[in-house]
Automatic annotation (TrEMBL):
InterPro entries: LRR_dom_sf. It comes from the Eukaryota. This is Uncharacterized protein.
Length: 858
């Protein structure tokens, strides 16, 4: 069946021009590549570029209106901006369906705000509630709410009208009450929810990209002498995982993309992107004479907009100019073009005259890399670009802000030796990685990338440099992303849910078995140099190391030493992947951190001798996280190389007092972040015992959240009393520089004494103090003055935030300002308070700077 091809076998690809992972310093092989002449009569660098969407009348909307739905599992409580335009299209209407409640008999939502791409609120009208039209008589609007929207039962729906087609980028949801937070939301870009879920192919669902415009595919004979009906029948019998597939007519002139019903938007984005006009214009308007010279190879990053122009060129020229495979000379379809093919058909011919890099054909000049991209040349270029687009979108980068350093476009292909050099540790790759904010690993759908020694070497360098590693892959018709850290408009819980869709089974199968010394390279000298670099052997061109790897003589002590050093790098790479998989392992039915697709993630992480930081910041609100899991994760600090440990188990209600009793935290740890917020089953007494006996004296920074669980009545339980603060004051680490604490305070007298003891016990090394009290009912206005008095004079940064209790009156603010002015080393001050609301409304203080508080004493 003629559908999307997989990547070529790696052993065959090794015969291709340039390295499969990156490139060899040898430029001799380039001379064997035939030059493909381009039509430059137009003066455009890339010749005639067809506006394919306009030429073939291709729009994002197909023969019928598609409804797209984003399904959101909601943690409790929930207060965050939620990105929706990653799945939803602009629409006049937006529907939200709520299902289930966490621990109450009613749903309670404080606020919903629709926002555009700039974060500005969008006006709306709530026109339907639970399927009933709002008439302000029998059915009242739920939003905007009068205080908050509370409704009995777990299943409800709302429909909103924006008056015209509107691009909703994100939605702010605020559910203050943990118990009454809905469990699930379905958000649709339609007035009604999707009911027809059939996903068949038919002759209606297609677009044409080549051939005589508006040629009906039913009149075309396709490859293998198939009719259009036979093509559709074959697609419905064995549906492509991508949910769309392309076919070329038997004469090679016409090209069509057929897609499943309801997936036109995905197919459109894959071939054209969200703004094809800009990409096409950039490709058309790039003129031969306007190219620039960028001497430093590390500054030749491609803007995402330039990568999108490359896609427009492929879509325009591949069928029209009859591009052929650099491997087997067969005719290519756009989605089959890989970097070997692009290098042959586009990059080498266009850069030969100037001996320049492909990046230097554009006019943007020096481009500092946002991300260094590690990848395999055999991956389809359209997959690669779609992955970069999705990566930029999720990070909030515009096409001109996101700059990706890609070897094929950055290196001068006719003079590779000048850019790469002989030492892998000093190559252009290494220089670029040092400049970039992180590394993006783009995986092909067969994970051939894991077998490339250049890629494995880059991953090792990434881990050793403690750079952030993002991983992306195009699979099942969509790009997927594992992010090194939190993304804009995404909570840790949503990050976990999104990453569950990543093909982890394949990733683990390949990456958790990686052995760098067995990696492939197109040029043997590349492998020799990398292997020698890893064992710090000179000269780098000595092939003795390769001979030892081939002979595998276990009695040779040098071979044993080599393997030990390579194992260190292998373990570091595998541990990085294992850390990224932990939260998904804990939230996937039938999987566990000790057996995730057949791999013991915890054992892999523990084997990493180089790791200094372990971060688990996205295991929030997971039922699978219980006492045993928490204890096992913290046990990883036994590795004496670990300096920083971060664990966010907020909302994991199955963690109990027993976990605190069993926790063993390494006494060599320097930095600890432990979030046990909204813990139903951790008492104040257990907290006291934990603080008195478990906190390492070695700590320099501590971030601790121990707030209780918010009940349907609005109280936080179990109660937190100042006795745990008093105990903390007794055992506070002597070299602590930073303390961040989030809790509640339920003492009838306000708990001031515990706070004062804590403030007075801070060592002189402490420069930053950050206190948040989710509930402090018995706070009195003058308490803030006493707290300020108790602060150490060495403190440089102070932030305090609390809810409920009395409002701080102006005279107390003046006295507070006076005390703060005495703290001569203080550089920043933040105060946020919201009163109990006993006045019929909330009173607040929101002081954001030192200057602002000092103005009260003026």
């Amino acid at each position: 069946m003629d559908m999307f091809c997989g990547c070529f076998a790696p052993q065959k690809q090794s015969r291709q021009i340039a390295a499969a992972d990156n490139q060899s310093a040898s430029s001799e092989i380039v001379k064997k590549t035939p030059s493909v002449k381009m039509n430059l009569d137009t003066g455009s660098t890339f010749g005639i570029i067809r506006d394919v969407p306009s030429l073939y009348n291709i729009t994002r909307c197909g023969p019928e209106l598609e409804t797209h739905t984003k399904i959101v599992d909601v943690p409790s409580p929930f207060k965050s901006d939620l990105l929706v335009d990653d799945e939803l299209e602009p629409s006049r209407y937006l529907s939200i369906k709520f299902e289930g409640i966490h621990d109450s008999h009613y749903i309670g939502i404080n606020e919903i705000v629709f926002k555009d791409a700039s974060g500005n609120p969008i006006d709306y009208t709530n026109i339907e509630v639970d399927g009933n039209e709002v008439d302000h008589d029998s059915t009242q609007p739920a939003f905007p709410p009068n205080g908050w929207w509370a409704v009995v039962g777990g299943d409800h729906s709302l429909v909103f009208d924006f008056g015209e087609v509107t691009h909703v980028s994100q939605i702010y949801f605020y559910c203050a009450n943990s118990a009454s937070t809905p469990k699930k939301m379905e958000i649709s870009d339609s007035k009604s929810f999707l009911s027809d879920t059939s996903n068949d192919y038919s002759t209606e669902y297609y677009f044409q990209t080549a051939g005589e415009p508006l040629t009906d595919p039913t009149s075309v004979v396709f490859a293998d002498n198939k009719s259009c009906e036979q093509v559709i029948e074959s697609l419905n019998q064995e549906k492509p995982s991508n949910k769309f597939a392309s076919f070329t007519s038997s004469d090679g002139v016409c090209h069509y993309v057929f897609y499943e019903k309801g997936t036109r938007t995905s197919a459109y984005n894959y071939y054209f992107g969200s703004e094809p006009d800009k990409a096409i214009q950039l490709a058309k308007n790039t003129v031969v004479q306007d190219g620039v010279e960028i001497p430093k190879v590390e500054l030749r990053a491609m803007k995402l907009s330039e990568l999108q122009a490359v896609r427009a060129i492929i879509i325009s020229k591949c069928i029209e100019d009859k591009w052929i495979s650099s491997y087997d000379k067969r005719k290519l379809r756009p989605e089959e073009v890989n970097l070997y093919d692009l290098n042959q058909s586009l990059i080498l011919p266009l850069t030969e005259r100037r001996n320049c890099a492909f990046k230097e054909l554009f006019t943007t000049g020096d481009s500092l890399p946002t991300y260094y991209v590690s990848h395999w040349w055999g991956e389809p270029v359209l997959d690669f670009i779609r992955c970069c687009e999705y990566h930029a979108e999720r990070h909030g980068f515009s096409p001109d802000e996101a700059q990706y350093w890609v070897c094929a476009y950055a290196n001068r292909q006719h003079d590779l030796g000048a850019d790469l050099g002989d030492d892998p540790s000093k190559s252009s790759f290494n220089k670029t990685m040092a400049l970039a904010r992180g590394v993006l690993l783009v995986c092909d759908m067969n994970l051939v990338v894991a077998s490339r020694i250049w890629v494995d070497f880059e991953l090792y360098r990434t881990v050793a440099m403690q750079s952030g590693l993002d991983i992306t892959m195009h699979a099942n018709g969509s790009p997927h992303l594992i992010a090194a850290s939190g993304l804009p408009n995404e909570t840790p819980y949503q990050k976990n849910k999104r990453e569950q869709n990543f093909p982890f089974a394949l990733l683990c199968k390949k990456m958790l078995k990686v052995e760098l010394h067995k990696g492939d390279s197109s040029m043997p000298i590349d492998k020799v140099r990398i292997l020698n670099t890893m064992i710090e052997h000179k000269p780098l061109d000595s092939d003795e190391v390769l001979q030892r790897m081939k002979e595998k003589n276990l009695e040779d002590p040098r071979y044993q030493q080599d393997l030990e050093k390579y194992a260190i790098s292998d373990n570091a790479i595998k541990a990085e992947i294992a850390c990224k998989a932990i939260s998904v392992a804990l939230s996937t039915e039938g999987q566990d951190s000790n057996d995730f697709h057949g791999f013991d993630l915890l054992k892999i992480i523990a084997s990493d001798e180089l790791r200094k930081t372990i971060t688990f910041n996205d295991i929030v609100s997971l039922d699978a996280v219980d006492d045993d899991v928490l204890v096992t994760l913290v046990k990883l600090t036994e590795n004496k190389s670990i300096e920083t440990f971060e664990l966010n188990a907020k909302g994991c209600i199955n963690v109990t007092n027993a976990a605190l009793e069993r926790l063993e935290i390494s006494d060599t740890l320097s930095n600890l972040s432990l979030n046990l917020g909204y813990a139903k089953n951790i008492t104040n007494d257990a907290l006291i015992k934990f603080i008195s006996s478990k906190l390492p004296e070695s700590l320099e920074t501590l971030d601790l959240e121990v707030s209780g669980y918010k009940t349907p009545e609005g109280n936080y339980l179990p109660n937190r009393y100042s006795t745990f603060l008093e105990e903390f004051a007794n055992v506070i680490p002597h070299h602590l520089t930073t303390l961040k604490l989030n809790s509640t305070l339920d003492d009838e007298d306000g708990g001031l004494e515990g706070l004062l003891q804590l403030a007075r016990s801070l060592p002189s090394s402490t420069v930053s103090l950050d206190l948040t009290f989710e509930q402090w009912d018995n706070f009195k206005s003058d308490m803030i003055i006493e707290i300020a008095k108790a602060l150490p004079s060495t403190l440089q940064n102070f932030r305090i935030c609390f809810y409920n209790g009395d409002h701080i009156e102006d005279n107390d603010m003046e006295m507070l300002a006076s005390e703060i002015s005495n703290k001569v080393n203080l550089k920043s001050f933040t105060l946020y308070t919201r009163s109990h609301g006993g006045y019929g409304y909330y009173k607040m203080r929101d002081i954001k700077s030192l200057e602002e508080i000092l103005n009260f004493s003026a």
